[in-house]
Amino acid sequence: MSRRQTVLRYVVLGIGALAFLFPFYYMVVGSLQTEPDPTPAGAFPSPSNLTLANYSDIDSRVDLWQGLLNSGIFTGGVIIGTVVFGLLAGYSLAVLQWRGRGVVFALALLVQVVPFQLLMIPLYVLIARDYGLADTHLGMILPFAINSTAVIVFRQYFLQLPKELFDAARIDGASELRVLWGVALPLVRPALLTVVLLSFIGPWNEFLWPFLITKEASMQPLAVSLANYISNVAATAANPFGAVLAGAVVLAGPAVALFIVFQRYFTSNDLGSGVKG
Amino acid sequence: MSTASTTRRAGGRTPARRGKLLGENPLGLLFSAPYLVFVVLVFAFPLCFAVWMSFQDYFFAAPGAQVDRPFVGLENYRQVLADPAVWRAFGNVGVFLIINVPLTVALSLVLATALDGATRFRTFLRVSYYVPYVTASVAVVGVWLFLFNGNGLVSQLLGPLAPDPAWLINSTWAMPMIALFVTWKQLGFYILLYLAALQNVPKELYESASTDGAGKVRQFFSVTMPGVRPATVLVVLLATVTGANLFTEPYLLTGGGGPNGASASPVLLMYQRGIEQGSPDVAAAIGVILVVLVLILAWLQRRFVGGEER
Predict the structure, then answer these.
(1) Cis peptide before B26, with omega less than 30 degrees from 0?
(2) Quick one: what percent of chain A has pLDDT higher than 70?
(3) Where are the domains positioned within chain B?
(4) If DSSP codes are grouped into helix, strand and coil, which group holds residue A33?
(5) Residue A263: its chain B contacts at CB < 8 A?
(6) Is residue B122 scored above 50 in pLDDT?
(7) By the 8 A CB rule, do A146 and A86 touch?
(8) CATH architecture of B76-309
(9) Class of the A63-220+250-276 domain?
(10) Can you tell me the ipTM of this complex?
(11) B244 contacts on A by Cβ (under 8 Å)
């Protein structure tokens, strides 16, 4: 490959990286400024203009810790549901022979193309009105409890394991649960992390559903309380952008950190297998 | 595929009579049961409920109260189709898709191809591309509001070239801005999909194209693009579904689909009509129309993007 092409390649890649990362840099800088400075110079503020006041400002209007806790419970519930029941389903779809297996697998694929937004009205009627689960964590978790993509990712990983492994364990008299726990699970650890990452983004970032069913501020995940702050109270704050951006940093922080630390479990191959089925 | 394996085994053993009804290993059904219940409860039933609701005069009532919700046929649909706001919202999604889908395919394919051949900084670049994808819309909307408001950084940099009124409150620019925002936010995911697809393009094809005298650009169009076509079908489908599901962006970025409905989306209308104004039946009708349109669009895309692959 010629030198000119290599340079061109990195120029394209560099422009891309800049376009993706600059808003995040600007988010952090903006959250630390005493006065919002939208001029180009404001992107490189002097240390004297920096403050943590915006963080305490947003915390006094939106309870950040409570928001993070609610986001955490919502996300944690989805991850547990997905790992436990998704693992069982993925295992039975890949390893066990039973009637209806094809139908369940087809359903898992189909579910991914049904837009959740179509279901929001009936789910709201059922969960918030009929079951009385408005303003509860359970009501928040229910529609996301088992991530279908995760079921497919698990199935894909289990399919790659040699059948003889399972047969050997069964001949030794191990029960099916024991085979799953003792033989299959240790071999699909990387899949476990991929699934945790996959099922983390959904609920942590979800806005519409928790927004619909939580009216009480103390039950709202951070994404919802921050959005309410943006659309309602921002106009009355001394430095509305500073406060909004400080809240944005707190909301984005855990997700970004998680994906940087575990980036090697979130690669094209894992995702490819998940989406291609 | 499940039935094939059961019939294959059926001839051999006689004690397997009991197993035949549920297959060789009925425990599988038990293991999948929680997921199956979940799908029925959270997808299948609400889906039917939504369709049923769109044909009734449905309204919210206190739990347990006995109320009459008569069948009204196509009345909700008639009401929806007579509403200019609904037409506008569907038109807005059209504008969104025309900008978002080609831009997404072009940018993610170019960046994925460039990244595939890169030897240095690969991890850094890959991670920086998907950071927006893993971040909450609500968080990045805050930055975009700051960047694109009347005297925000972008308007300051462009000076007199910036539109007036500013981007997000300008009826011409509001929808394209949302399309741009979503393209930017989702691009990392599609880059990962294309990266996976690029591994499946046989390297020999590039070599033989090269010996035939094809340059890099020519190779991109005659080897890479046909090679990743299945991924392109998927990217186009997913981008379309994302576009149809638009809610957070018009709700927050342009302040509730403003200015004056210029960036309202069907889902935003479903929220306003269904929850705020208490007409879930009308909202359900909008939802059914939306899904039917998406299905038609997906079928058309499969025909034209999918090419001979079908």
Answers:
(1) no
(2) 93
(3) 19-74, 76-309
(4) strand
(5) 123, 126-127
(6) yes
(7) yes
(8) Orthogonal Bundle (1.10)
(9) mainly alpha
(10) 0.85
(11) 115, 117
- Judged by a CB distance cut-off of 8 A, whether residue B158 touches chain A is no
Query: What values do phi and psi take at B135, rounded to 5?
Result: -95, 145
Q: Do B192 and A271 touch (CB under 8 A)?
A: yes
pLDDT tops 50 at residue B1: no
CA distance B135 to B130: 9
CB distance from A106 to chain B under 8 Å?
no
B150 at interface of A, judged by CB pairs closer than 8 A: no
Within its chain, how far is the Cα of A169 from the centroid? 36
Question: Is B169's Cβ below 8 Å from some Cβ in A?
Answer: no
Residue of B2, B34, B290 lying closest to A99 (CB–CB): B2
Residue for token digits 């009579």?
B17
Residue of chain A whose alpha carbon sits nearest to that of B64: A130
Which residue's entry shows tokens 């020999």?
Answer: B204
Q: Can you name the residues that pair with B71 across neighbouring β-strands?
A: B56
- Look at B36 and A122 and tell me if their CB atoms are within 8 Å: no
Q: Cα dist. B91→B84, B87, B94, B249, B272 in Å?
A: 10, 6, 5, 16, 18
Q: Mark yes or no for CB contact B139/A226 under 8 Å.
A: yes
Give chain B's length: 310
CA B269/CA B51 separation, integer angstroms: 17
- Nearest residue, CB atoms, B252 vs list A130, A227, A259: A227
Share of chain B above pLDDT 70, in %: 90
Instruction: Tell me the residue length of chain A.
Output: 277
Find the residue in B nearest to A142 (Cα): B42
Chain-chain contact of B146 with A26 (C-beta, under 8 angstroms):
yes
| pLDDT, position A106 | 87
Check residue B105 and give left, alpha or beta (phi > 0: left; psi -120 to 50: alpha): alpha
Q: Which residue has the higher pLDDT, A137 or A34?
A: A137
Question: Could you state, in order of their start, the residue ranges of all structural domains in chain A?
Answer: 63-220+250-276
Which pLDDT belongs to residue A236?
Answer: 59
**Shortest CA distance from A175: residue in chain B:** B27
Instruction: Decide if B66 touches A, using CB distance below 8 A.
Output: no
Using the Cβ of A198 and the Cβ atoms of chain B, whether some distance falls under 8 Å is answered with no
Q: Give the pLDDT mean for B170-182.
A: 87
Determine the residue of chain B that is closest to A88 in CA distance. B31
Q: Residues with Cβ < 8 Å from B213, sequence gap 6 or more? A: none
Q: What is the pLDDT of residues A200-241, one digit of tens each?
A: 988 988 888 999 899 888 889 999 999 988 887 655 566 678
